[in-house]
Structure formats: C-alpha cells, structure tokens
Amino acid sequence: ALGVGVFVAVTCVMVARGLSGALAGRTAATVGAFGCLVLLPAVADMPHPGLLAFYGVMLVALAAQAALAPRAGAAGVLAVGLGGHLVIWSLDAEAYTLVVLAGVAVLGVMTGVPARNEIARTGAAVSAAVATGALAIASALSAGFRTEAAGFAALAVAAMSAAVSAALARHMGRDDQEASPEMWGRAALGVEVTGWWIAASGLFMTMRDAGLLSLALACTGVLGLAVALRPDRRPVAWGGLVLLQFALWIQLAISDVTAPEAYTAPLSAAGLVAAWLARRRDPGTSSWLGYGTALALTFLPSAYAAWNDVGLTRPLLLGAAAFAATMAGAWARLQAPLILGGAVLVVTAAHEFAPALAALMGEGPRWLPIALAGAFLLFTGATYEHRLRDLRKIRRFIVRMR
Fold this sequence. Notes:
Helices cover 83% and strands 0% of the residues. With 402 residues, it is mostly helical. The radius of gyration is 34 Å and the shape is elongated.
C-alpha cells in the first residue's frame, strides 16, 4: 500500500506540473507526500507516543511550508487539519494533551511571526490563541479545579488575547518590511475575535454556579471596557456595560433582592448619561429615544410596585424622582421627562390620596360630592374660553419641545 501510494503521488505530481505548471506541481507534491506519510505509522506499527511525535514533525513541516511560501495553499489547509487531528489523538492522556497543546501554541507563534503571506500569518495567530486557551483550561482541570473555576483560566487567556491584539494593531508593519500593515491588522483582528470566543467559552463553563457566573460576567465586562479604551473599539464599551448589568442582576437575585429599582436604576442612570452625550453631539435628537427609554425602565416597574405597596417610602421616593424629572423636562424643554415624569407623578399622587379622599367623602354629608362636582362644572363653564386658550398654549409649548 505504501509503494502504491508513492507511485500514485509521483505520477500526480508529474502530470500536474506538466499540465498546470510549477505551482500545481508543488501543490500535488505536498498532498501526495502528506498522503504517503500518513501511512507510515500504520506500516511501522508505531506506539502512541511515537505516532504523536511523528505527526508533530509533519505538522511543523507543513506549517513552515505554508508560512514561508508566497501562498499558504494546500500546506496551510493540511496543517490545520493535521493540527486538529493531533489534538484529538492526544486526548487519551493528560500529559499528551498538555504537551501537544503547548506545542501547537508555540508553533503558531513561531510560524506566525516570519510568515510571508496573510493567510498563514492570520491562521497561525488564531491557532496559537485557540491552543493557548485550550491549554489553560486543560491545565486548570488537570490541577483539580472544578469546571466552573477552570472557566476563569479561559477568561485570563481572553484578556491576554486582547492585549496581544492591541499590541499587534499598534506595532503592525513596523518591524517587518516584507509584510504590509494589513497583514498584521488581520492577524490582530483574528486574535481578538478568537479571544472573545474563548471568553464566551469561559462564561459557558461557569453557568452552573450563579456566584461564579456573576463574577465571570463582571470580569468580562471590565475586559470590554478596557478594550474600549482603544480609539477604534469604542462601541465595545456598550457590550461591557451590558455584561456588568447582567452580573449585577445575578448578584441581586442571589441576595434575594426583589425591589425592581435595584435592577433598573443602574441601567436607567447609564441610559441618561448616554442620552445626554448623544444630545450634545446632535441637539436635534428626540428626547424619547434616550431620556424616555431610560426613565421608563425605572419609572414604570416602580410605579407598578408602588401601586401594590402598602408602605410610604417607595411612593415618596418615586414621587420625588418624577417631580424632579418633570421640572428638568420643563426647564430643558424636553418632552419625554416632562410628560413621563408628570404622568407618573399624577398616578402616584392619585393612588396615595385616593383612600383619604374616599374616607373624607364617606364621612361627610352625601351632598358634598355632588356639590363639588357642580362647582367644578360651573367653574369650567365660566372660564371655558380662557382654559381653552391655556390648553392651546400648553400644546404648542409641548409640540415645540424635542
């Protein structure tokens, strides 16, 4: 079988070179040599450690060919496939797994730096990041840590990937005159994306422990804020804030906190700040897009809770906040705070004063409600035109608001 394989490989190389040129001949030679070498361990009946070592040497040769050639070609594809195959075969023993993963990570770094083509450099960088993340997780599990705790090893590698990506993006093309800046930039992007996938894997590993999941979300959120310090990664800050909010929610749930304001107030505060910054850039932005959404996140759940709350603390605080929003909306000429704050203030006040008014009406004479309603109708009818003009002025005032 080995002899037939060699004969077929040589024939394919000669035919490919004669029909399509030297590049096709080299591609056929790479594939043919790989196919023949794969048969050697079976022919020689190699033990498992020897098999891993032999495939490791093949992987080094393929990675070097893919990196040093003008194009990665078939060598790059075969290197990726053989690397995955080698890792799978090393899972039989912890020692083999750790050695192979460490070797793949080092090989990715050693071939990515001198690579002469973009695909090989990016592939080597991504392979090194993936192998490093897997090595960190495998090392933590091998040391006896629980799966949930081992997830933080993945988060550490994700943080390291973010730092490496920032360094590559900052120094791309400075030390290698043969590589264009775009080649380093794509490698940096590959490392960064791989790092976020590793972080997602770490979060998934901590899901069975709510406390560790909250801590992992907080660490990932802080990492997102750190990445957002780069001028070209500002939008990542929003993802970091969302992760921190999820971490807070989980921690509040663990602590048996049921007050809705504890869950919504931080998010509303962040939304108000974002809306203020957005209106500074574009004063014509509608207040309902920013201020309205941010205030509704806290006002509506809190108003529902206050409606069913027998105490006085929540209605007082909600009324004070709604009054402040109403005054701020009137002063800044913003529709959302004025209307939303005023509506919540009226509903809260009506709910608190309704029992007292009902008791007063019940204890007073029966003609009192009818007299008050008649007086109100008389006053409204007598000042109808004036009130109508006032309502029109208020309507025009609100319509002119943003």
